[in-house]
Write a structure and sequence with these properties.
GMP Synthetase, Chain A, domain 3; about 30% strand; 2 domains; elongated; two-stranded antiparallel ribbon; alpha+beta; three-stranded antiparallel sheet
Length: about 130
């Protein structure tokens, strides 16, 4: 799997994945990279919740997830993320715990819990890495 990061100008930094361009920008015209990262957590959980509901024919009108980030006052780093799955009033009670379990299957969350190793280096054009 490979993604190319390009610099189209200004404060814009885009990720190119196949035919898709994911724009980021620090000027507010697109999500900032960190905002996009945070959004990936809630939207990933949302994909699992939506799939769970659709597979069972459960209502998704008025279904939403509120994501809350709690930051450490000392480090200014996020130390806790809450995902509040707000269910519609007619949502069957017997599926409430299962909806939580489906959100916990999120691949982004799993990668945060078991982070990958980062190897950052430079290379020239399409050559070998400079180390």
């Amino acid at each position: 799997m490979e993604m190319e990061i390009v610099f189209p100008g200004g404060l814009r930094v885009d990720a190119v994945a196949g035919d898709m361009v994911i724009p980021t920008n620090q000027d507010g015209s697109a999500p900032a990279p960190f905002g996009l990262f945070l959004a990936s957590i809630g939207t990933c959980a949302g994909i699992y919740v939506l799939s769970f509901c659709q597979q069972r024919g459960l209502p998704t009108d008025n279904l939403r997830i509120i994501q809350r980030m709690h930051t450490s006052p000392l480090t200014r780093m996020i130390e806790k993320i809450e995902l509040d799955i707000q269910l519609p009033p007619d949502f069957p009670a017997q599926y409430k715990d299962a909806v939580i379990r489906s959100a916990q299957l999120c691949a982004v969350k799993k990668h945060l819990e078991h982070p990958p190793v980062f190897d950052v280096y430079t290379s020239v054009a399409e050559g070998e890495p400079l180390r």
